[in-house]
């Protein structure tokens, strides 16, 4: 519930461009008192109002999103189920970037991809799923726009067919889970890959580069004399909390690259919570 009567909001919006500094200060104070309900209430009273274009309102909305995100993130990290935790973390990032009231159904979209795969590959394997996602469906690495903060947003990736190595790996993990395949993340040195399991052995999949498969022979060549410690790193299980922390770190770097110091520091601090 808003702390301020929503009926006042249209009048506040009419005065928001007033040149009188005292009036501006009063308007800002009143708008801030709405808290995280402000975005929702703005849509109710004026669907056409674009806060992005208003220098007075935009900082208030973005600060509300940060407060909301931090509160929800702290609540979410106690979720025991790894896949529910992962989906919740992805949902929070999407709502932070698209709006707290943004409605979508991530799980339904993952189920639809799984259904499409079963239709195209009735007896398909976990490796054929990589072909389906990264060749047939054309999900690929964001090579020309790598540091766009939106590339950490799973819905943005689903809509635009590109993203970061981690985002694409997570997409593979979620669709694989729906199909009862086992795929995990892999903190490959200098990159992020997927581990696609076939019984008790795994093949590395480079989701950023069209689902390219990396086999043991190539790993021996890459690692040279450090093969055993190299494989120890690759073989370590990557937990959902590790992936979520990496998403936060990626967002911090992306906002830093965009010269957005406030969001850069915000996500950097969340990594260390």
Give your account of this protein's structure.
With 273 residues, this protein is α+β, with helices and mostly antiparallel strands. The protein contains 13 helices and six strands. A four-stranded antiparallel β-sheet has the order 3-4-5-6. The chain has a two-stranded parallel ribbon with strand order 1-2. Helix 4 (58-76) packs antiparallel against helix 5 (82-98), helix 6 packs across helix 9 (165-178) and helix 12 runs antiparallel to helix 13 (261-271). The mean pLDDT is 91.
Give the CA-based shape: elongated
Oligomeric nature of the chains: single chain
Level of helix content?
A: 55-70%
Low-confidence stretches at least 5 residues in length (pLDDT < 50)? Answer: none
Work out the helix count: 13
- The fraction of residues in strands falls at 5-15%
CA-CA gap between termini: 28 Å
The rounded Rg comes to 22 Å
Count of DSSP strands: 6
């Amino acid at each position: 519930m808003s702390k301020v009567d929503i009926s006042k909001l249209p009048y506040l919006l009419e005065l928001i461009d007033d040149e009188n500094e005292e009036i501006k200060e009063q308007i800002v104070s009143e708008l801030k008192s709405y808290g995280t309900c402000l975005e929702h209430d703005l849509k109710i009273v004026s669907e056409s109002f674009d806060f992005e274009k208003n220098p007075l309102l935009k900082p208030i909305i973005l600060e509300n999103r940060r407060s909301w995100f931090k509160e929800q993130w702290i609540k979410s990290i106690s979720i025991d189920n790894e896949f529910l935790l992962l989906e919740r973390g992805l949902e929070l990032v999407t709502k932070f970037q698209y709006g707290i009231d943004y409605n979508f159904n991530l799980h339904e979209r993952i189920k639809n991809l799984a259904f499409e795969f079963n239709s195209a590959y009735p007896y398909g394997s976990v490796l054929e799923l990589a072909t389906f996602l990264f060749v047939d469906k054309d999900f690929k690495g964001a090579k020309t726009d790598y540091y766009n903060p939106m590339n950490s947003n799973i819905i943005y990736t689903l809509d635009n067919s590109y993203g970061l190595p981690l985002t694409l790996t997570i997409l593979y993990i979620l669709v694989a889970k729906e199909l009862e395949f086992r795929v995990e993340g892999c903190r490959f040195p200098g990159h992020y890959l997927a581990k696609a399991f076939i019984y008790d052995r795994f093949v590395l999949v480079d989701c950023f580069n069209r689902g390219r498969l990396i086999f043991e022979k190539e790993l021996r060549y890459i690692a040279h004399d450090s093969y055993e410690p190299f494989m120890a790193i690759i073989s370590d299980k990557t937990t959902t909390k590790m992936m979520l922390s990496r998403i936060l770190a990626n967002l911090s770097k992306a906002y830093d690259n965009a010269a957005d110091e406030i969001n850069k520091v915000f996500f950097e601090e969340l990594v260390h919570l």
